[in-house]
Every structure is written in structure tokens, then in C-alpha cells.
Amino acid sequence: MKRILSVIILLSVYWLVIGESNLTFAKSSTQIQMDSSSDMLMNEEIADTTDTTQEISNVPHSESFVENTADTSQDGTISGTSESMLPSTRTEKSLVGNGTQSSPFLIYTYNQLSNVATTINASSYPTINSGTVYIKLMADITSNGTRVTFSNSKNPIIIDGSTTQNSSGNHYIYYTGNSGYAGLFALGTGNMTITFKNINFGSKDSPRSNYYGFCYSTSNNNIINIQDVHYYAEIGGQPFYVIGSNSVLNFSGNNTFVVSNIDSNSNQEFAEFAGTMNFKEGSKTAIVQKTNAVLAFIWSYSTINMNVESNAQVFIQSGKTEMFYPRYDVNLTVSESAMFTYLFDPNLSYIDPQTVFGDSSDYETIQVSGKTNASTNNFFSGSANFNLSAANQSQIDFITTGYPFQTGTLDINTQDTASIKFLNQMNTSPALNSSNTSLKVTNNSKNSTIYNLAKTPTGSSTTPVSELIVPGTSSVTLTSNLPKYSAIVYEPAVKVGGIIASGLSGIDENKNPYSKITSHLTGVSSSLDSTYTYKAQYYVTNDTSTVLDNATLNNNYDETVATQTHLSGSFHTSLDSLPSVATEVGDQSTLASLDQLFSSDYTVYGRLAIISQSNHQTYYTSWENTMATIDSFQAVTLPTLINIDDNISYTTSVGKFGMSFNKQISYPIVNQSNRIIEVMPTVLTPMGNNNVTIVTDSPNDWQDKTLQLQLNSDEASIQWNFGNLINPTILELQPYWDIKNNVQHFYLDGAYSGPFMTSTPAIVDYTLAFSINPK
Q1: To which H or E segment does residue 671 belong?
Q2: For 709-734, what is each residue's pLDDT tens digit?
Q3: Which of 397, 399, 435, 521 sits most deeply, having the most CB atoms within 10 A of its CB?
Q4: How far apart are CA 439 and CA 426, in angstroms?
Q5: What domains lie within the chain, and their CATH numbers?
Q6: Considering the entire predicted model, what is its pTM?
Q7: Does an H or E element contain 636, and which?
């Protein structure tokens, strides 16, 4: 008579069958795959300082303040009719608030601002409020020409015009006075700090202003903060008159300043200024100075320091004869990933400042007929030093639509900057003239980047003349030969526009698992000759909390180690050449992959290494970065059919039949996932044909048709007793790349009670469920 004991596993299920014939297990494997499835005002403090209150009586440089519809007297008074469209006159309300953050002064009229100034200028006010003075505009207000002067140096002042009453989110302050010398606000002493935020000064319907600006200051060490301010003037336009020593102008948020007119000479500079202008981190400031009065963009009273902080953007449109007047030195510092653009254009039309920070194809032009009276385009009214410093990935552009830039000694120091450009959009004219002008650029790259000073001949479509500047060296100083070039562009000799990466995981057509990052660089090109070769180098990490700097990446990248932790690693591909102009083929040549990574979110960094075959020196581009995700992929291989005949031996002792498991056949459980997997049997369920009882312990002879069955692994120290699946030992398997620990081998063991000689078959029909989970 035949005796059969068969075990079949289907997906995560074991089927066990016992019959009368040979006790046989059939063996095969399959894979189980599962998918894992209104703003508060800031509270500021300032140290106590004292200064002597002084009379504000300074008069700006001698220029007339004229409008076609108005008569201007010798003292700067404008008579005539303003074309303003202003709010109707309001009944004066009593002053509300004491200036503290919890009880700000609430302003409905300009007269109330005067009353606030009187209140806080009093020597006793700091006993009421020792901190910042908060002034909140509750309505659009109008100045008729009477200046509001603050002279309290003990309390910083914040004037906030935020509102939900119009689409701009700012209240308006209008000016209807006839005096060009009035100003709207003044700081009457030194060591003061005042902030203007969320305010619109003027509008197209009410474009009158004055050339003492909306903030007038002649005292030393005053700080003026500008945040989310929009200024518009066609008459008397000059936002700032701040000439005290060591003055500071800070621009934060998004700001626009537009001074534009057709037939008036009453508009002057963006600022008369002495000190430092800071365009704060992440801010955007767009300035338009397009008028018939063409003296200068800034009238300097001292050396001017302009700092464009990291990720800030400044875009200046000017039709002025000088950028700076008269001839004080200027220091321009453009920090990491910041942008500074100065566009000279003698046409009165201008680019809408709301569009200048997008792609140039999205610029919208405000049409104004006519031209400014500019006849030249000078950095200074005479020779002076223009010192420029450009940091990592920053960009500086000087663009002209006609007259070339001239009169300045330009000394440019760079540290891994993205580009510096001098460009005449009329390529038949030079970008820079030789009149009192020189240009020198120094490469201080910390990233060992070669730069190219490319000079495009005037009126020519030929290839630009290249001058390679290796780290630690300077360009040849350009002077008399400047008029030869319509464009002079300083940028990396080898360029990378960006990086693309994707995470991939699964099992390929050859049943091999993979879990990898695939990446390539974009916009790659080189102006170098065939004596250079290249490597596309990549570093990947699951640290996505911050973007690593170049120095850290240079240290972490290790071509000799791929995926030591399987959560980070380095990989590369070698290239013999790159195109001179970026192409898809050139980009795809940088494609490379790194396999055997855990499922996770990753930051992927990439760069090009440039190897000189002549001196074997290696240079680099800056690191680019992007994000990629490798999805969790679970694939576990389990035995599905076991031939019991291969696992047991029959014995006869004293005329008595018996059976034992020989433990010779190994049944692997293999993790082909990209995660650590935990496996354990959970439920053994008898099915309809079953007539054999699975028990915990070895059965006695008198226990008819009773089976004790185990799946054991000596290497994993695991015994899974199918008769007791309460809290079974968990099998932990490492990911597929750990070929030593991603698999464990099991064998069958157990005991059967009998009977062995019977005409009634013993049938074992069970379903065994497994729990398979990522750790």
C-alpha cells in the first residue's frame, strides 16, 4: 500500500497532503511580490543711544523740479493742479493705541501720523514703551506737503500698511504737495531705525512725489528698512534722500520702484546716498529710473557699498547718464546664488518690474514714447574704482541697448560664480568703451573650476575669442582693446545646466532584482580643446534635510567606494569629449547608475571633472543637485512544492514500521527585496479533505493519524512548529545585495504516529499563511 505525505506552498500558503502511497514531496519555487504601500508685527529691541536733535534744512543738489502743468518757483515750490485721484476727505478720528505691539497706533490720516511723531519724540515716551514703536495704517492716507519728522533714537519704528481692502495687500500713501523739497518722512537725529513695510507710495492715478524722497535723513548711522514696498512717481520722483554718514538701506521682501515720465525734468535719482545698501537674503527688488532728467542713478556722498545677499535678485533699468555720480568708489558684493542686473536703455519705455524676474521671453513692456536725454552711459562721472565680488553661483549682468559702458576701473573677484556679462544688444557697438575704462577678472574658485573670458568681436558672428583663466589667476587687463567686443562673458569653460535623476526598483526580465538611481547631467558643453577629457561624477545620499555644499561633497565623493552603507554612494562615467553647444546626445553621454540602494528618498548630486592630458591637472564644475525616490519593492522566494519521499526514511524495528525525517534537503527562503524583510508563519488552517491532526509534540503510537511537523533552520536557529504558531520566531532577511544574509535554508523535521499499514488514506490538507513585512 502507498503512503504519501506532500507539502505544497502556493504564494504565501503551504498545502500539506498525506495519502497511502509513497511519502513524496515535490519541490519548486515561485516569487511573492508585494508593493509596500493677518501678519504679526515684529518685536524689535534697540540699545539705548542718544543724539542731538538737529534741524532738517539741507537742500539736495541743484536741479529744478518741473511739471508741464505746473509753475516751479525758485524755492522748489510747484504750483498747478495735480491730476491725482485721491480718497475723499475724512473726519479726523482721535488717536488710538500707544505704539506697543499689543496696542499699535492706528492711523487713518496723515495728520494722525504727525501726532504720533509728536508723541513718540517726547523724552517721556520710552517710559510708556521701551521697545519698538508699532504704527498701523488703517486707510490710504495723503500728505499735502507737511513732513512728518521722527527724532526718537531710543525706539525702533515700524510703519505697516498691510490690508485686505485691495488686491495689492498694501495701503497707499499719496503726496499732493507742491514743494519738491518737502519729503514725506524724515529722521531728525542719528542712530535711528525705521521700517516701512507693506506700503504703496503713489500710483498711476496719483503719480506726484518729491525729490527729498519718502524718507529723508541727513544724520549719521540711521538704518532704514524697506519691506514689500511699491513706489510709483512721474512728478518729483526720487525715493531716497539719505546722506548721513554710515547710513544703511535694507531691502527685504518684494519691492518695486518706478520713476517714469514723458515731458518733465522734475525727476531725479533713485537715491542721494552715503553708506551701505543691503538687498536682503531672498528678496526681489526691481528699480526703474527712466526720465528726462538724466544725471545719475545714484548721487553718492561717500563710497557706496551694495550687498546683494544670497538668493536675492536686483534688476535695475536706467536711462541715466551715470550709474554713480560723481566719482566715489563703489563696492558691489553679490552673494551665493544671487543676481544683479543693470540695464541701460535710453528709451522711456521700460519692462514691467513685476515681470523682470521671470524668463526674458515673459517680459512685458510698458510703452512710453520718447527717449531720455542721456548721451553717454558712464559708470561714474570720471574715473573711479568699481570693485565687484561674485560668490558661488551668483550672476552679474551689465546690459546696454546702445551706448557702451565706460569710465570706471572694474576689478572683479569671483568665487565659483555662474556668470558675469557685459553685453551690448546692438552687436555692432561695443559693450565697454576704452574711455577711462579697464576690466580685470580674477578666478578665486574653491572648486577648482576653469573659467573662460569669452569676447565676441563687434559686428561679427564669428566664434568668441577665448581666454582661459585657471583657479588662482587673473585675466589680462582689458583697456584700449575693449571697443573691439560687443559682448564679454565670464563663465565656466565647461558648463552644466542641471541634473536629472530617477529611482528604479523591481525585477528585470532575467529575474534579477535591482534598486538603483539613474542620473545624467543636462546642458553640458565645453569650450576646451581635445587635450581635455571628462568624467561625469555623482554622489547620492538619503540625507535630504539640507543641500550639501561643494566642500562637503568634494570630501564625500569617493570613486573607489560605491555603496558602502547602501544609503549613499559615489558613481561615475568617463567621457572623451563634450559638444561645444549643449545637445541631447551630449547630455545622455553622462548617464550613469548606482545599484543596491535601500528604498528611500535621495538627493542626487552631479558634476563634471575635467582632466588636462597635458599636465594631468583635474578641474571641476560646481555640483548640481536634484531629488529622486526609490520605491519599496518586496519580493520573497518561498518553496512551493516539497517531495516528502526525499525527506523521510522508513524503518522496521521488532516487526514494527516507523518513519523519520532525514533532513537532507534544503529549502531556501530568499529575500529579493530592497528592504530588510521579516518572515514568519502565522496561521495553519485545515481544509476540507484533511483527516490528520497537526500537534505540537511528538505523537504517541496510540494517537491515530497525528503529525508533528517543523520547518527548521540551524543557521538561523529557527524552529517553526506547525502545531504551535503562537509567537513564532521571526526570520529576518537582509536585502538582495547581501547574498550571505538575504537567504536562510530550512529542512523538514517531525514525527508521525501512524498507522502505517491501512486501507484508509491519511490525508493532510492544510493552508499555511505567512506574514511577510518590511522591517
Answers
A1: strand 667-671
A2: 999 999 889 999 999 999 999 999 99
A3: 521
A4: 21
A5: 3-35+637-740+754-774 (no CATH), 44-219 (no CATH), 495-631 (2.60.40)
A6: 0.77
A7: strand 633-643
